[in-house]
Design brief:
The complex is a heterodimer of chains A (about 350) and B (about 350).
Chain A (H helix, E strand, L loop, with lengths): L3 H6 L33 H4 L11 H10 L10 H27 L10 H8 L1 H34 L5 H12 L3 H12 L4 H10 L12 H26 L2 H9 L4 H29 L3 H6 L7 H11 L3 H28 L3
Helix pairs in contact in A: 4-15, 5-15, 6-10, 6-12, 7-10, 8-10, 10-12, 11-12, 12-15, 14-15
Chain B lengths: L2 E10 L2 E11 L4 E5 L6 H9 L6 E6 L2 E2 L10 E5 L10 H11 L4 H14 L15 H14 L4 E5 L7 H17 L4 E6 L2 H7 L2 E6 L2 E6 L1 H6 L4 H6 L4 E7 L3 E4 L2 E4 L10 E6 L4 E3 L4 E12 L3 E8 L2 E8 L10 E6 L4 E5 L6
Parallel strand pairs in B: 3-8, 3-9, 6-7, 7-8
Antiparallel strand pairs in B: 1-2, 1-4, 4-5, 9-10, 11-12, 11-14, 12-13, 14-20, 15-19, 16-17, 16-19, 17-18
Helix pairs in contact in B: 2-3, 2-4, 3-4
Classes of the chains: A mainly alpha (about 350), B alpha+beta (about 350).
Protein name (chain B): ABC-type quaternary amine transporter
GO molecular function, one term (chain B): ATP binding
Enzyme class (chain B): translocase
Chain lengths: ~350, ~350
């Protein structure tokens, strides 16, 4: 049985059994960039996959594009290319920031001390502004998430004529300035707005009942109105990536709409909710135009405090202290968001 | 649970994609809906699932009219080509999804999930996530998920099309085994692959351009196809235009001996013969031809032969001495291997 000629033939019968490679169609799970096509060990098998789908989905392009560092052909050293952006960044961003930082430790009495910080932290106005800023931002973010999720659900999954147009409008809305929304709300609910005008016209009363616009609730309403599209945009993108076959499978398994939303759509939307929500949170913390335009006297947020200290009171060190606090909160939240999103695998 | 299509018509924007389908699937039967893309087979399946609403006609499941029921109240299991597993849920949670949705008690869920995973050979993967599984494993999970709710009807929409060839034949055997283990579950199996249909189905419904062309057992459709489309789609039969005689048919001036069946003498007809039933050399029914192409297919050689301006496909065993490309040859076929189909013939 050890016939050498027989053994010689054996190796020529090529092994037909290629181990079944895992299904690694890159567009299927854009939320899981754990297996980038470039450096995964199974890339040898997967390169035989027919190019059935374009690999460039907008969502998956981000993480995989980042992992694959490429240089322009014929480019000079990386250091040279890094120079212009770094210089510009320092000149127009870091330097002014450093000035603000230095001003915040330069009290009017001269010298360098943390005195301005002590003064500002001790003032009731600052603590109140901090509280107002945080709760307004949190409440507005929660409102945006709820409203944005609900609206995006309807636009993406309830077929109605004009759904596309509405989705386009969301894009356009993002380019509007924030005070525009506030101005529009003033026209409707302001002291001499349409709603109050109708009321006084109908009842003959001297004043209408709608006075909430100058309260924190007015600011909240304006912020939710303005920032909701910022949540909807990433949500709509995420929903468009969702395989409708999953929804149909869930439905055929006996799940009704609420369960499908909760157990199929929501988990897929979490990364989008996190990114949209954190964006809105940071934007709300720093929002100035809306608070200014509602004319809510009692509502002093940190940006408003910076404004009043710097412009009205000429207390530059104090203004800079508040600004630094504002920046720290924003950066801290951003870091938190990065950490959370990385853990979520997004 | 049986399925009945009662004159089901489906249209999208006035475009009829399923035209008055009448079809009955007996309880426990595997019915393959076979046809090219755009033939309406998937639409028919989606009408049973409840994802498309018929313009007219009724869909009955187990004698119950479900035409107006939403998908979640139809009690069906469905498996699709791209698996459609829930990516954030573990395998066992995927399988439990339907049971939870139906409010099955917790203790019952555990047992049923284990049972379904056992049945599909995926018990060892219960804690994995779909993305960690191969395509074949994902499809098994999808089947387990559909079976866990113990549906009376299992709908399979091109379930093997995303798998590679080797895996496909293995899964085909698995499905056949599942069918034996679940004798009460009717299966509606949509495919464009005649091998899948011939292997798995008790009966095949051949569909083309929104219509049902033929329905019968695989053997019936293969041996005595009802029309030219069925003959060519199931088994790639050669089709030659002929004029019928009495016990004969004339093709390009050559008289061939065939059983004319119901075709009247003098009528135009289509002669249908399978590629592997055509022989080389002399025989009872001879036709001269020219070899235009030779394809080696492992166990067989496939010759494309130009016969009187028509292309004839001939499959001969690998051991046969194969004529050269361009050679003038004679082909023949036995009288009993030929089916004469009435006119109205050509698919086009």
């Amino acid at each position: 049985m050890t016939d050498p000629t027989g053994r010689g033939i054996l190796p020529t019968t090529a092994p037909t059994g290629r181990p079944e490679h895992p299904a690694t169609s890159p567009t299927r799970h854009p939320q899981h960039p754990t297996a980038p096509p470039v450096n995964s060990p199974i890339s040898g098998g997967s390169q035989k996959l027919p190019p059935t789908r374009p690999v460039t989905s907008p969502v998956s392009a981000g993480p995989s594009g980042r992992s694959a560092r490429r240089w322009l052909p014929g480019s000079a050293g990386p250091v040279l290319w890094a120079l212009p952006p770094v210089v510009l960044l320092c000149l127009f961003f870091l330097y002014p920031l450093a000035l603000v930082l230095r001003q915040s430790v330069s009290p009017d009495t001269g010298g360098t001390s943390l005195r301005p910080y002590a003064d500002v932290f001790a003032s009731a106005a600052f603590r109140e502004a901090l509280g107002t800023t945080v709760w307004l931002a949190l409440a507005a973010t929660a409102g945006c998430l709820l409203l944005g999720f609900a609206l995006a659900l309807v636009i993406a999954f309830v077929p109605f004529p004009g759904a596309r147009a509405v989705a386009r409008f969301v894009d356009v809305f993002l380019s509007f300035p924030s005070f525009l929304v506030t101005l529009a709300l003033l026209f409707v609910y302001g002291r001499v707005g349409i709603a109050n005008g109708l009321w006084t016209g109908l009842t003959g009363a001297a004043e209408g009942p709608f006075r909430f616009l100058t309260t924190p609730w007015g600011v909240l309403l304006a912020e939710i109105t303005y920032f909701t599209p910022f949540v909807m945009r990433p949500l709509l993108a995420a929903f468009s990536q969702l395989d409708t076959a999953q929804l149909e499978a869930a439905s055929s398994l006996g799940a009704r709409a609420p369960r499908i939303v909760r157990r199929v759509i929501l988990p897929e939307a979490l990364p989008a909710l996190a990114s949209g929500g954190s964006l809105v949170l940071v934007l709300c913390l720093n929002e100035f135009g809306i608070v200014l335009f509602t004319g809510a006297k009692g509502v002093t947020t940190l940006p408003m405090l910076v404004y009043s200290k710097a412009i009205l009171e000429s207390d530059y060190p104090g203004a800079c202290v508040v600004a630094v606090v504002n920046v720290l909160i924003s950066v801290g939240l951003y870091a938190l968001y990065r950490m959370v999103s990385r853990r979520a695998g997004a | 649970m049986g399925i009945r299509f009662d004159s089901v018509t489906v249209a999208y924007d006035g475009d009829v994609v399923l035209d008055a389908l009448d079809l009955t699937v007996a309880p426990g039967e595997v019915m393959a809906l076979l046809g090219p893309s755009g033939s309406g087979k998937t639409t028919a399946l989606r009408a049973v699932a409840g994802f498309v609403r018929p313009l007219s006609g009724r869909v009955l499941l187990g004698g119950r009219d479900v035409t107006d029921l939403p998908p979640y109240r139809r009690g069906i299991g469905m498996v699709v080509q791209q698996y459609a597993l829930f990516p954030h849920l573990r395998v066992e949670e995927n399988v439990a999804f339907g049971l939870r949705a139906r409010g099955t008690p917790r203790a019952g869920i555990r047992a049923r999930v284990a049972e379904a995973l056992e049945m599909t050979g995926m018990a060892a993967y219960a804690r994995r996530r779909p993305r960690d599984l191969s395509g074949g494993q994902q499809q098994r999970v999808a089947i387990a998920r559909a079976l866990a709710v113990r549906p009376g009807v299992l709908l399979l929409d091109e379930p093997l099309s995303a798998l590679d060839t080797r895996l496909r034949s293995g899964m085909l055997a698995e499905l056949a085994r599942l069918h034996r283990e679940l004798p009460d579950v009717s299966m509606l199996y949509v495919t464009h692959d005649q091998i899948e249909a011939l292997t798995l189905a008790d009966r095949i419904a051949v569909m083309d351009r929104a219509r049902l062309r033929a329905c019968g057992t695989p053997a019936e459709l293969y041996r005595r196809p009802a029309d030219a489309f069925t003959a060519s789609f199931v088994g790639n039969a050669n089709l030659l235009p002929v004029t019928a005689g009495t016990g004969t048919a004339v093709f390009a001036g050559t008289e061939l001996t065939v059983a004319t069946g119901g075709v009247a003498p003098g009528a135009r007809a289509t002669l249908c013969v399978r590629p592997h039933l055509v022989g080389l050399g002399d025989g009872p029914n001879r036709l001269p031809g020219t070899v235009t192409a030779i394809q080696w297919r492992g166990a067989t050689h496939r010759l494309l032969v130009d016969v009187g301006g028509h292309e004839l496909t001939v499959d001969v065993p690998e051991s046969t001495a194969v004529p050269a490309d361009g050679a003038e040859i004679t082909v023949h076929f036995a009288t009993e291997d030929v089916v004469l189909l009435p006119a109205g013939v050509s698919h086009d």
